[in-house]
Design goal:
- The protein has 189 residues and is an all-alpha fold.
- The chain has a single domain, classed as Up-down Bundle (Four Helix Bundle (Hemerythrin (Met), subunit A)).
- The chain contains 6 helices and 2 strands; from the N terminus they run αααααββα.
- Strands 1-2 form a two-stranded antiparallel ribbon.
- Strand 1 (150-151) and strand 2 (156-157) form a beta hairpin.
- The model has no long low-confidence stretch (mean pLDDT 89).
């Protein structure tokens, strides 16, 4: 696995605000109209935006670039983040159900990052896994509109789970910003 040793020139596709990822009209996170009303729609909106941000940071990269690791001994890569989120979306469902936990997608500890290798089949599987696991977790939570409702064996509230999901995506999107900039110099929100 190659390391990020080159120092690409910083750049952005944006022309309106050159420190942004995309111009406002081209940014899928910009929505027409007002922000959502109510706590649940607001939380869902933030989650959607962070999910889009992660995908935007990965767009346009090939398998080698997506699998490129940051700095030793870290196994962090954009592809690893995609796989990590598929894994944690699945695990979050385990938090809110009373049944037997779903098995890990990629194996035990750090397998999501360790198995993030520069192979297009691995990349395609990561995107498919992420999309499937996000949809499954969203579907389960769609049946629980009361943010104070407590679910699963540990009785976690729907609100706490949604905020935790937003926090996890936001934290890793910050890492994705730096990973992307090291790969090809692209900067922005």
């Amino acid at each position: 696995m190659s390391r990020m040793t080159d120092h690409p020139a910083r750049w952005s596709q944006a022309t309106v605000y050159p420190d942004m990822w995309a111009d406002p009209d081209d940014d899928p996170r910009n929505k027409d109209g007002d922000s959502p009303d109510g706590e649940l729609p607001t939380l869902q909106d933030f989650l959607t935006d962070y999910r889009l941000t992660l995908r935007m940071k990965c767009d346009g990269l090939d398998a080698e670039q997506l699998a490129r690791r940051s700095v030793p001994p870290s196994t962090l890569s954009l592809l690893g983040l995609l796989r990590h989120f598929a894994e944690v979306e699945r695990d979050w469902r385990n938090w809110i159900t009373d049944g037997e936990p779903l098995p890990k997608l990629y194996g035990e500890r750090d397998a999501d990052f360790d198995g993030a290798v520069a192979d297009q089949a691995v990349v395609d599987a990561a995107y498919a896994d992420l999309e499937r696991e996000q949809a499954a977790t969203d579907a389960v939570l769609a049946g629980h509109q009361d943010l104070g409702e407590r679910l699963g064996k540990d009785r976690i509230s729907v609100r706490e789970l949604l905020v935790h999901r937003i926090e996890e995506y936001a934290r890793h999107c910050g890492q994705a910003d730096l990973l992307r900039e090291c790969i090809d110099g692209r900067v922005g929100q």
